[in-house]
Hints:
Blueprint: E1 3-7, H1 10-13, E2 16-18, E3 28-37, E4 40-48, H2 51-72, H3 84-90, E5 96-97, H4 100-115, H5 125-137, H6 144-151, E6 159-162, E7 165-168, H7 181-195, E8 201-205, E9 208-211, E10 220-225, E11 231-237, E12 241-246, E13 250-254, E14 257-260, E15 274-281, H8 284-295, H9 299-308, E16 312-317, E17 322-324
Antiparallel strand pairs: 1-13, 2-10, 3-4, 4-8, 5-7, 6-7, 8-9, 9-12, 10-11, 12-15, 13-14, 15-16, 16-17
Amino acid sequence: MKNAVRICAALSALIVLLTFASCGKTQKRYSVTYADTFDTVTEFSAYCDSEAQFDRACEALHGELLRLHRIFDIYNEYEGVNNAATVNRLAGSQPVEVPEELIELLGVCKTFYGLSGGKLDASLGSVLSIWHDCRESADRLPDMESLKEAAKHTGFQFVKTEGSEISFTDPGLSLDLGAVAKGYAAGRAAEAVKRSGVISFALDVGGNVVTGGAKPDGNWLIGVTDPEGGLYTKLAVSGLAVVTSGDYQRFYEIDGVRYHHIIDPDTLYPAGLYRSVTVICGSSAYADALSTALFCMSVQDGKALAQSYDAEALWIKADGSAERTAGFASYER
C-alpha cells in the first residue's frame, strides 16, 4: 500500500492576498508576518502615516490573536485561563467558567448548527480527533465502527451554557472549534487594528481574510486559489471578509485517494460535493462558519443560508464546474 501525506501551507492553500504598491502620497504601505497563532501564518498589510503608527496596530492585533489563540486552543491548557482544552477535560463532570469570548464563539457555533441542519457541528470533536490522528500518521483510515461510536457523543443538545459557564450532559462529548475560531479571531483582531487608528488594512489569518477601508488606489484584491493550482479569480473588496474552505488545504492520501479535513457529520467521512467554497461576508466569524457549512450542503440550501446573512458564495464543484450566488460576480476582477 502506497501512502502519501501532504499538509499544505496555509497561505498557498487558502486565499492568497494580492498586494500592490500604493499610488497615494501621504501614506506608506507596511507589512508584517506572524507564525505563532492558530497553527498558521498570519499576514498583515496596512497604509499608515508612520512606522510608529503601524507598530501600534501590530501590537494591538498580535496581542489579540495571541490572547484568543490561548482561549480557543483545544490541545493545550494555559495558566490563568479556562480555555477550550479545559472545557473538554472538565465540562463532562462539572460546569467550567470560561472567558466571554468562548461563550460568544460557542453561541455562533450553536446558531449555525441549527441553521445548517447540523452540517456545521463544533460538538464533533470526538469524531474529528479520530480523523486528526489518522491524518497525522498518514498510514490508515479510521475504522467506521469507531467513528459511529464517537458520533454517539456529539450534538449541541448535550452542550449547556449558563452565564459564563459551560457544561456537557454527555461526558464523552468534546468541542472542536476549528470551523469558526480563526474567522472569529481575525474579526476581533481587525477591530483591535481599527481602535489603534488604522483604517486601511488587510489581515490574513491562514486564509481568513478581513479587509478594512480601501487602499489609497482602490479596493483590496484578494486572490482565490484554483483547487488544481494557480489563481481561479480575484475579488475586489473593502470592509468585508473573504474565507475559503477547500479539500486541498489539509489532507492525506491512501492508495491515491485524497481524504481531506472537512468531515460531513452525516457520513462521518470527508464531504465530497465540492473542491472549495468561498464566502464574502461582512462578518469574519460568519464567513468562516458559512464556508464550512456550505461545503457540506447542497448549493440550493447553501444559497438560502448565505442569503440570510447577506453573504455571497462561490462553489467549485468536484467536476470542475462552478456556481455562484447572484451577487458574487460583482466582486470579481
